[in-house]
Q: What sequence folds into this?
């Protein structure tokens, strides 16, 4: 393609204007305007296609509103389809007289004279077309204009493709952010117990503030889940959340992990590296197992919390950091403060707001709810049919104390899904250690005792407690106790024998 110097300069100017655009709508609008200016076209349209070949984006200029909404009636689909299928440009000084167009209804009905149609190709893949026409002037597009428009189309292809990729990345980011917000939304956290409902209410109250939060709880209770709920329900949710496990690094490496280092700061520091606090700037930093942090690092952490500044290893330059602090611990920090293992001033900086996550054994109402949630996740990941827990397996899970808390329950459920070959998870699919303390009283698969049996147990317990009460009131004198109970002494003796109650021992107690 040969273009003169003036056209080259014009092309360079337009291309610079185009390539700085990142929004696909702006790219197409600018491109269309410039194409019409340089070609003298009466009207034009750019259409981009998705992978299925359907129209993804389109921009039309110098058309009435109804034409933009219904472009298939106003441009020649015959011409566009020919360029799409051939991936070759089409230049028609008089479309109605061209042999290949004489049978085209759209060309005749629209009385098209001058037409240029070009493919938009990136890395040998067609993803759009440019269409320009003039219905009033035959030969409106000169040969050199066609050559110039072809050159411009190459830049449009590049700019449009980059803008499309950016749009796809932005859409993907929006979906991921929405997925994260949904995953850590309060409604998505699986719980039913009053204890966890209270925890979530507390999280909702403090999430949108910037104050430090301390999350206390045993291993496996879900402290990181609470930390993420704090972040993704806060005003900082668009910024990163950075997690550091304070127990995973020795002191010298943890300091570098926190604050970064300059090249040559220590043996093996071959290049500068940003620390976690710098990475978390504007967002949230989650300090897990902060109860394992050494006193020396506690001093440096205190400086960051107090003044919002730190110094990378090997540097004299003070850096500022605006990161919300969320810390978690297994051992309550006040106990470590009393034993001298944790700085009192740092404790009070972190303990502005404390959230205590209860162990699973204290919220048994959540066990089956969580188990069924983990069942669904495991079945999806393993591409298996969703099995159900039978009644006895549920009883075993509810009876177990779960020293490993929610994490242990998840692992038990995943193991059961692997072992289960049918549609039902039974006791044989559960580990022996969680069945060891469980008494299998029933041979059938019924989940609960009969109503009659349950009622009798309640009556018996009430009766026993009542006998103990009247004996206490009568100082162990059976005749007086029987009288208080409105019973014959003989019947009272029989009740005491039934419940294995000794009057004298009860009276002394």
A:
């Amino acid at each position: 393609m040969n273009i003169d110097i003036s056209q080259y300069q014009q092309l360079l100017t337009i291309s610079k204007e185009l390539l700085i655009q990142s929004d696909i709508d702006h790219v197409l609008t600018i491109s269309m305007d410039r194409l019409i200016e340089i070609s003298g076209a009466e009207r034009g349209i750019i259409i981009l296609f998705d992978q299925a070949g359907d129209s993804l984006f389109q921009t039309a200029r110098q058309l009435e509103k109804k034409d933009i909404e219904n472009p298939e009636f106003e441009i020649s689909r015959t011409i566009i389809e020919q360029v799409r299928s051939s991936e070759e440009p089409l230049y028609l000084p008089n479309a109605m007289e061209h042999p290949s167009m004489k049978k085209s209804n759209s060309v005749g009905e629209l009385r098209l004279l001058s037409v240029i149609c070009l493919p938009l190709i990136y890395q040998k893949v067609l993803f759009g077309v440019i269409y320009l026409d003039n219905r009033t002037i035959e030969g409106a597009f000169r040969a050199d204009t066609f050559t110039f428009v072809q050159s411009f189309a190459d830049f449009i292809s590049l700019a449009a493709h980059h803008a499309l990729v950016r749009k796809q990345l932005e859409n993907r980011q929006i979906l991921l952010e929405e997925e994260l917000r949904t995953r850590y939304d309060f409604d998505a956290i699986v719980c039913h117990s009053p204890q966890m409902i209270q925890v979530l209410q507390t999280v909702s109250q403090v999430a949108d503030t910037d104050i430090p939060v301390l999350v206390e709880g045993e291993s496996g209770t879900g402290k990181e889940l609470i930390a993420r709920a704090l972040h993704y329900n806060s005003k900082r949710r668009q910024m990163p959340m950075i997690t550091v496990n304070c127990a995973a690094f020795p002191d010298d490496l943890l300091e570098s992990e926190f604050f970064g280092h300059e090249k040559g700061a220590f043996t093996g520091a071959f290049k500068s590296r940003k620390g976690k606090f710098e990475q978390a700037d504007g967002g949230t930093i989650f300090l897990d197992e902060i109860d394992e942090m050494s006193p020396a690092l506690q001093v440096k952490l205190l400086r960051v919390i107090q003044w919002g500044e730190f110094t990378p290893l090997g540097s004299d330059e003070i850096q500022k950091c605006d990161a919300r602090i969320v810390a978690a611990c297994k051992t309550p920090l006040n106990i470590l403060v009393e034993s001298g293992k944790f700085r009192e001033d740092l404790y009070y900086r972190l303990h502005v707001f404390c959230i205590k996550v209860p162990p699973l054994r204290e919220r048994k109402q959540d066990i089956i709810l969580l188990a069924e949630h983990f069942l669904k996740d495991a079945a999806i990941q393993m591409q298996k049919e969703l099995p159900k827990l039978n009644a006895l397996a549920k009883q075993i899970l509810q009876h177990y104390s779960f020293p490993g808390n929610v994490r242990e329950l998840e692992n038990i459920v995943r193991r059961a899904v692997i072992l289960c070959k049918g549609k039902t998870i039974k006791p044989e699919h559960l580990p022996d250690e969680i069945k060891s303390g469980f008494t299998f009283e029933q041979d059938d698969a019924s989940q609960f005792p009969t109503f009659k049996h349950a009622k009798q147990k309640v009556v018996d317990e009430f009766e026993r407690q009542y006998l103990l009460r009247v004996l206490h009131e009568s100082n162990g004198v059976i005749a007086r106790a029987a009288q208080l109970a409105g019973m014959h002494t003989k019947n009272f003796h029989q009740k005491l024998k039934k419940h294995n109650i000794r009057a004298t021992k009860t009276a002394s107690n």
Summary: Residues 5-169 form a domain with the Beta-Lactamase fold (CATH 3.30.450.40). The chain has a mean pLDDT of 84.
